[in-house]
Design brief:
Blueprint (H helix, E strand, L loop, with lengths): L2 H4 L8 H32 L4 E2 L2 E2 L10 E2 L4 E2 H46 L16 H30 L2 H16 L5
């Protein structure tokens, strides 16, 4: 089968599920960033009196002699831009991976829900088919197994009912007994 034919083009299949999942992943990332910032704040608090001097050659200088910069630079002025860049990158990556991961879950759930709706209407044909990288394959197999089992029972019931129409009274008694056995295998309470 062609790979292009198997690719989904809509990334948000189940908005309620996917947005809730993405919110949870983003909240986890925010908690990690806040914890990291807290550790950075503690480190900054204990190093208040430490100042660093960055020594580098001037960009347009004729010689390569390193000269100290005019202002002493603090740890905070060095780390804050890095921290803000890290926060932005972390949130962007988290959002992208949240969409991708939720897509791999929402698509199969959408298909399984659709098959269950068809089963509710009485359609037991077909099966749930998932892509290679999709999640919930065991759930899809369980739904397929359920559909197959119910199809077999319904076909058996149909055969018994067909036999009742063309049989005599002694055969009807055994057919009714088998109908009761099949019906008792379903629990409705």
């Amino acid at each position: 089968m062609n790979d292009q034919a198997c690719k989904r083009h809509i990334m948000i299949v189940d908005p309620q599920f996917q947005f809730q999942f993405i919110r949870r992943v983003v909240m986890l990332a925010v908690l990690i960033v806040v914890a990291s910032l807290s550790l950075l704040a503690i480190a900054y608090y204990f190093s208040l009196d430490i100042q660093t001097v960055i020594v580098q050659p001037l960009p347009l200088a004729i010689s390569d002699i390193a000269t100290p910069m005019e202002e002493p630079t603090t740890i905070a002025s060095i780390l804050l831009p890095v921290v803000f860049i890290c926060i932005a990158v972390t949130l962007a990556v988290t959002l992208v991976f949240g969409i991708i991961l939720s897509h791999r879950m929402a698509g199969p759930l959408f298909r399984i829900r659709r098959e269950l709706t068809e089963m509710e209407k009485g359609d037991l044909s077909g099966e749930v088919r998932l892509r290679e990288k999709d999640d919930f394959k065991s759930l899809a197999q369980s739904v397929n197994s359920l559909k197959k089992s119910w199809s077999c029972r319904i076909q058996e019931l149909d055969g018994i009912i067909g036999g009742l129409d063309s049989s005599g009274i002694p055969e009807q008694a055994s057919a009714f007994k088998r109908l009761k056995e099949i019906m008792s295998s379903f629990k409705t309470d």
